[in-house]
Amino acid sequence: YLISWKNNFFLITEKRQDIYSVFFFKLKMDSSKIIIKSPGRINLIGEHIDYNGGYVLPGATDLFIQFTFSNSKKNYSEVYSSVIDKKCKIYFDNLSKREIQWENYLVGSLISILKKRKVKLENFNCLIEGNLPLGSGISSSSSLICGFIKGIDQLNNLSLNNEEILSISREVEYDFIGLKGGIMDQFTIINSKKNNLIFLNTIDNSAEFIKSDLGDYKLLLLNTNKKHNLSDSEYNKRVEECQEALKIINDSGYNIKFLTQIDVEDLRKIQNLMPDNIFNRALYVTQENNRTIQSVEHLKNLDLKSLGNLMYSSHDGLRDLYEVSCDELDYLVDKTRIYDQILGARMMGGGFGGCTINLIHKDFIDSFVSDVSESYSSMFSLELSPIITSLGEGLRYKV
Ligand code: GLA
After folding, report:
1. Ligand 1 pocket member 50 (CB < 6 A)
2. What is this structure's pTM?
3. What's the farthest any 2 CA atoms get from each other in the chain?
């Protein structure tokens, strides 16, 4: 018999004098063919609430980063990204923090993998390609980290399951990079299913897949091309402000673990205990959480008009209460408001740049894009990049 289990082969030969011979082979993968595809993520609604125990409604894009891994006989590993035309060398015995951020995503991933699996990793070559725009609020960093971890996993037969990849990738971003983000991006990148959104409860990571039926409408991303770097931005400050709001709420007699667990009426009762900006952050969080829950109902009832209205309210909250928008994003959203063919629009992701997400009739895309691109570039001296996206699959590999 020839039995295979996790890339190991057992050959059990005929019984002779009551003894079976068992031969064991470890399958040496032809790792030159390990290819990983790691998507970006979009988020229909539920912004900045994944670190507040909120409900979010993301999905994977059909845009992705592709990694091609092969073994190397050298005493170091080498990664080349054709996307940015940069390469870097990695020595396993020197995995310290670097000056260059994208290299830190790789080094940080290796450190966290080695904490989880105490093994000797093989040196490798890795080619990074793909069509996922960088630094645009579509989660290119989490996609890079998750895809890289999956590749190292496959190359070294580490048998990491999705939960382990999730916890490793979270550790890299939270501890090594220092972005105190929630779980939405990595969860989506790892678990997404084609044509589905994920209704994710970030209190316990329970998830419901929601078939996205948008009929004649499409999801159009408008990339401002204003680069943001979340770890340098106000992102962590918002996380702290939410923690401050939570503390004030609990000090006033409530006993909640997450900001989304207080309702808007109760919050208003204790408004006078909070500085204005802290109240505004908390108000936004509770309202956005309700909007996400309602959006799922609208999606299930195919009521796209009401869904679109909630997207606009989400943007207004992110701009006025949470203060993570910017002129470019506001301009792009405001441009859509007069058109019946666009049901909703909002900034997407961490903010301060990146993309808007628009729910737009398929026949109106071309004329809207050409109109808005022209006025946008004359206004901001930046080029606008439109991306029509559908919902793609999560992290995957082929050998
Ligand atoms: C970034 C973070 C996510 C989430 C979004 C905002 O993408 O990585 O965890 O907080 O911003 O919704």
Report:
1. yes
2. 0.91
3. 87
Asked if 331 contacts 380 with a C-beta cutoff of 8 angstroms, the reply is yes
State CA 338 to chain mean position distance.
Answer: 31
For the Cβ of 47 lying below 6 angstroms from any atom of ligand 1, the answer is yes
Q: Which are the contacts of 179, defined by CB distance < 8 A and separation ≥ 6? A: 173, 230, 231, 235, 236
Q: What is 130-166 written as a DSSP string?
A: E-PPTTSSS-HHHHHHHHHHHHHHHHTT----HHHHH
Q: Which uninterrupted H or E stretch holds 199?
A: strand 196-201
Annotated catalytic residue 185? yes
Cα–Cα nearest to 41, from 242, 181, 175: 181
Cα–ligand 1 centroid distance for 370 (angstroms): 30
pLDDT tens readout for residues 263-317: 999 999 999 999 999 999 999 999 999 999 999 999 999 999 999 999 999 999 9
How many other CB atoms are found less than 10 A from the CB of residue 330? 16
Query: 258-286 burial, b for 16+ CB within 10 Å, e for fewer?
Result: bbbbbeeeebeebeeebeeebbbbbbbbb
Tokens of 115: 């904490």
CB-CB contact of 126 with 80 (8 Å): yes
How many CA atoms within 13 Å lie on the side-chain side of 318?
Answer: 32
